[in-house]
Amino acid sequence: MFVEKMGKTKTVQNKDGLINILFRDDVTGTNGVMDSGGNEVVGKMADKARASLSVSTYFFKKLETLGVSTHYVSTDANLLTMIAERAEIFGNGLEFICRRRACGSFVRRYGDYIQEMEKLPHLVEVTIKDDERGDPLINDDAVVALGIMSLKELNEAKELTRRIAQIIELDLGEKGLKLIDLKLEFGKINGKIVLIDEISGDCMRVKKGGVLLNQIELYEVLIAED
Q: Of 61, 85, 109, which residue constitutes the final position of a domain?
């Protein structure tokens, strides 16, 4: 086994034709302030890795039962790893962000037109995975013109983003939680677009009673109290 890639909060390793995604306690933020929507590592949170792995496992299994294809294979809770199929990524990686409430960078960009926490209609934005450039937004025409995805693939990924967000939003709502936004990644396995990476508090903002939950608080409400 060898390290294939060190991400901000996870380490990806090769293993027997599959990949091991090792979850770490690192947390992201902006300007030193913890925020799952941030683009830099700002510190560590004890047991965050276990919480993020548990929440990811919970949602991947739920999505599979509802017919959403993913790269998920199994979880090793002792090693804090998720085992997954290897997927072909689009370009150097794209992120699909589904916004239900205006928050973070969305308000910083469009504050003249919308207020903080104002409702949005499952609005999907696409960004390029590029830490040096701050994961810049990219529009549909550019995605296609640059050969990153075909228009058909792009539309399919955006529809999958909305569907997954709706499933997660409904599940959270049953537990008194409100989804603010959600960041997803997709790849191709045997020519089919599937959900990859993770689905945890590291890639979504969730509120309970008007308060944003951190990764461990989300785990405690979503799973530990279930």
A: 85
Cα 162 → chain centroid: 13
Alpha carbons 12 and 83: distance in angstroms, whole number: 10
Dmax (CA) of the chain: 52
> End of a domain among 85, 103, 129?
85
Q: Is the pLDDT reported for residue 155 higher than 70?
A: yes
14 Rama class: left (phi>0) / alpha (psi -120 to 50) / beta:
beta
- Number of domains observed in the structure of the chain: 2
* Structure confidence by residue, pLDDT tens digits, 166-202: 999 999 999 999 999 999 999 999 999 999 999 999 9
* Domain identity same for 34 and 138: no
pLDDT at residue 132, as a whole number: 86
- Distance CA(49)–CA(143), nearest Å, equals 33
